[in-house]
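Task 17 of the worksheet. Students: predict the tertiary structure of the chain below and write it out as structure tokens. Keep your answer in the requested format; marks are given for formatting as well as content.
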Amino acid sequence: MALPQLTKAGNAYTPFTFEKGRFLPVSEPDQPRQLRGIAGGGQVKIADLGDPEEYFDIIINRVSKTNRDNLEGFITDSTVNYSENTFTFVDENSTSHTVRWWSDNLNNPQVKGGLYNLRLILRKEIT
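Model answer:
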């Protein structure tokens, strides 16, 4: 299996390759876009708002400072600029996905041994 990778044309850090694979179990949740409620008479009411949203929850533990710094450089580069622009995520099966950075913050804490834990959420673009 290939290591996961992020790419974006013109990005100073592209291609960014994670130095390890994702922490198992790999989580890729689908979130339905529906409003659910109960009417006054107890009947269930559902409003379907479109295609479900797909996410890639990426957790990679104990990577080098260089790998952490390059990931943060990729995300903050003006070609990506956090969630503003899309980029390509290539998973372990070499499948390409157009995504946006969807994490609430950029926080990759240092752990024992001078290594870092990476956690980011990517939202697959709905086409």
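Marker's comment: The chain has one domain: 5-124. The radius of gyration is 17 Å.
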